[in-house]
């Protein structure tokens, strides 16, 4: 009789760890394997923006996944704190988003989904935050939230341990672990972020999975109190004198996870134009992470063709934190053979690339 866990998860970023946590909660014996330290790649590097959402009214399966995260992050955060005593930094700080003329339809998407928002005059926006440049139409999103990635990952790891998940960092995944006589689990989840093809590629290639580097600058000094978003760039005030300024989108960097002085200088300039009090702030640190991106920006969540016991969960691109809870629930449905709560064909590995569509959020 083999003594292996019900589910082996390869990759211990936010996706793998959240899957582990939810599966363990359902009584499944889970082990997580990572070639490095747990939670130190894209999931550590991200800004932790959790936009609002409403799974009941969301227009697409991807929006539903975001809606599940928006709805359940408060509960998960409370649960993690109760289990581990660790605060993940989740807070509904609100956001001001500036929309360009090309994004004029976005408020209609928010309205259709039942997301609370208010169009602000420039004067009202300036009363709320110490804004300088006004780079578009300002909107208030009171339910936009944030989580502190390193804190959330630390809490998730501790909670997984409390729930009996076996954690194996710094472990090399072997090719023969999927098949008898050396298989190590009844089922598998492959959640190795931008590197997922290194593992799943032995069974099936995801031809368009690729890394997209994102750089972030961390400033110390007076700042705004809400998240401020302009297209793909944003400020995320952490509430303790620190402000994240993100981020670049650099597919051309491939797997090179380095910062560049030009990109960091441009981010700092952007921040200081938007919130001039940041001219007095100091640059505390800068870093980069490699987002896992699919060709159409939609994650891959589903079984590997020909390998029904192997489920892939990757390609969450700019949204892996906000999509982590929905992904873990969908993966749990698949592995426990329950009817899926979302139309998961949209995430299938074999889907035709989905046409570009205007999304409710850019970060
Ligand atoms: C600058 C930046 C800002 C972002 N901001 C946000 C945001 O505000 N909100 C949001 O929702 N998302 C954000 N994201 C996106 C989010 O961080 C990612 O989508 C998410 O972290 C992806 O998680 P993951 O677990 O798939 O990948 P990762 O965190 O990269 O984890 C993959 C894991 O797999 C392991 N691994 C790799 N190869 C192997 C192997 N061969 N064997 C075993 N293990 C392996 C790695 O060591 C790693 O631990 C941001 C990302 C970046 C870079």
Summarize the structure.
28% of the residues lie in helices and 22% in strands.
Which sheet architecture does the biggest sheet show? Answer: 8 strands, mixed
Categorize the overall geometry.
globular
Question: What's the domain count?
Answer: 2
Question: Which ions and ligands are bound to the chains?
Answer: flavin-adenine dinucleotide
- Spans of at least 5 consecutive residues whose pLDDT stays below 50 are none
CATH structural fold name of the largest domain? FAD/NAD(P)-binding domain
If you compute it from the alpha carbons, what radius of gyration comes out, rounded to the nearest whole angstrom? 20 Å
Order of helices and strands: EHEHEHEHEHEEHEEHEEEEHEEEH
Our measurement of the CA-to-CA distance between the termini, rounded to an integer number of angstroms, reads 48 Å
Count of alpha/pi helices: 9
């Amino acid at each position: 009789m083999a003594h292996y866990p019900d589910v082996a998860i390869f990759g211990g970023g936010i996706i793998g760890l959240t899957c582990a946590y939810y599966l363990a909660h359902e009584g499944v014996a889970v082990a997580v394997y990572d070639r490095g330290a747990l939670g130190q790649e894209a999931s550590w590097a991200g800004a932790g923006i959790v936009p609002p959402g409403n799974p009941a009214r969301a227009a697409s399966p991807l929006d539903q996944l975001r809606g599940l995260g928006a709805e359940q992050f408060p509960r998960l955060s409370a649960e993690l704190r109760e289990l581990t005593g660790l605060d993940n930094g989740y807070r509904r700080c609100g956001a001001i988003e500036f929309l360009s003329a090309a994004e004029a339809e976005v408020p209609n998407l928010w309205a259709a989904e039942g997301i609370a928002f208010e169009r602000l005059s420039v004067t009202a926006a300036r009363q709320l935050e110490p804004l300088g440049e006004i780079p578009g139409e300002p909107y208030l999103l009171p339910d936009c939230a944030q989580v502190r990635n390193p804190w959330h990952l630390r809490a998730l790891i501790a909670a997984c341990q409390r729930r009996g998940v076996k954690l194996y960092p710094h472990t090399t995944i072997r090719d023969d672990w999927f098949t008898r006589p050396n298989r190590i689990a009844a089922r598998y989840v492959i959640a190795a972020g931008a590197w997922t093809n290194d593992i799943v590629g032995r069974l099936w290639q995801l031809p368009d999975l690729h890394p997209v580097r994102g750089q972030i600058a961390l400033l110390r000094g007076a700042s705004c109190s809400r998240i401020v978003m302009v297209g793909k760039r944003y400020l995320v005030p952490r509430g303790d004198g620190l402000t994240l300024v993100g981020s670049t989108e650099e597919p051309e960097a491939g797997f090179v996870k380095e910062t560049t002085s030009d990109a960091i200088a441009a981010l700092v300039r952007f921040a200081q134009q938007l919130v001039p009090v940041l001219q007095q702030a100091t640059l505390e640190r800068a870093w980069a992470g490699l987002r896992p991106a699919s060709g159409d920006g939609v994650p891959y969540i589903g079984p590997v063709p020909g390998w029904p016991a192997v489920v892939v969960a990757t390609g969450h691109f700019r949204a892996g934190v906000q999509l982590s809870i929905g992904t873990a629930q969908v993966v749990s449905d698949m592995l426990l053979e329950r009817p899926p709560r979302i139309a998961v064909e949209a995430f299938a590995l074999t889907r035709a690339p989905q046409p570009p569509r205007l999304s409710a959020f850019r970060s």
